[in-house]
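Sat 14:20. Reprocessing the chain from the morning session after the first attempt stalled halfway. Input below, unchanged.
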Amino acid sequence: MLPATLGRLTRYSLLLLVATASFWFSPAPLTEDEYCGTYLHLSSFAGFMANCDGFEYMESARYPARLLEPQAVRQSRPLYVLLGTAVGYPVTWVMQGLQAGGLLPAAVVAKLPAKYQPLLGFYIGYVLLNFGLLLGALLLFRHLYYRLTDGRGQPLVLAALLVFLISNQVTKAFFWTVHQQMFTFLVPLALLWLALQLRQQPRWRAALLGLALLGGLLALAYGSFVLVLPVLIYGLWLLRRQKPLLTLTARALLLTSLFVLPTLLWILLLQLRGVAYYNHEAEAYHQLVWLQGLWLQPLPDFLVLTGANLAQFGTTLPAIAPFLVAALAAGWWLYGGAPGRPTGLTELIGLLALLTGFLAGLGYYKERLTFMLVPLLLLVAALALARRPPGPRGSALLLAAALGWHVWQVASYGPFS
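Finished this time. Tokens:
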């Protein structure tokens, strides 16, 4: 068991590194107006983007007390910054040791922009976090692939789907920089895995209170983990035939209270230090805050705003159009194929609806955010391909198409942030 696991980790790590390193050779930006950050040249024909958001992440990881300052930009995501601290300092010490031993020439570090030189260890630490998050997403996708297909999935089909998962505009722009976008792939897969555990493992439904507290902690690392709460409410709903409605309602309130407890304790800590809690995403981008207009402004005005926001959300969908088309075709194939409902289809479709509603309601719309739908859309395609296997030639063609997709991603211009 252990050798197989280590072999899988090695293969997936190599796949991840080869795919993402190839983005170094993508066309460099032509003007500084096309990105926010610094383009770091590895050579005359290779380089990658250091996103402008990364500097604040690194400085906060270097000095975590910055989180306690008024209007600290990363104050709403303290656990992710502390992860950066936990990884960044050991990497910094290793880098200092390499420099002291002459294994890392000072001239190499001197070529970096001045503001990045003292933060190099934290930069590498955050990239290691990106690696861990994306590797976790790949392994979780593999698990869900075989779980949803009842073990009938084909390795070549899985390989092709993994290439699509790794190679896209989000990994191209954000894997080699300091950012949180690798959660884009991990969060939806983790939510689906949790929903399946709640459905198929009764002991998980008995642990809902602990899961609520854990989910609340994760929400302090990345905001989209707030969707753990509705998944846990789904776990309560599964008990509807065993528990009276009043009991379930009381438990739902208790779940919600435990889920928000970590955030409330963090806000209390800030207030004890005389600092008002600051959520940069809500203040700067009005994420979800615009929904308050439902009771703060006349209904016609709110409906106009809603229409405008939904139209803006719609402009991000072309970025994932190939995956949407594939999933729709797969859905038609599913219902036109063998009888019976595939394992986990209810949870998969339900989460697609939940994520779509969440993204549409954010009030801040970017293509990179809408990519949260892609891992689940790929699993819809996986279900169809398992129920109607394409055969060796078809699987090979699918893998060839995935490799062609990756080549196109590498050769295409942008995105850079």
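Residues 33-411 form one domain.
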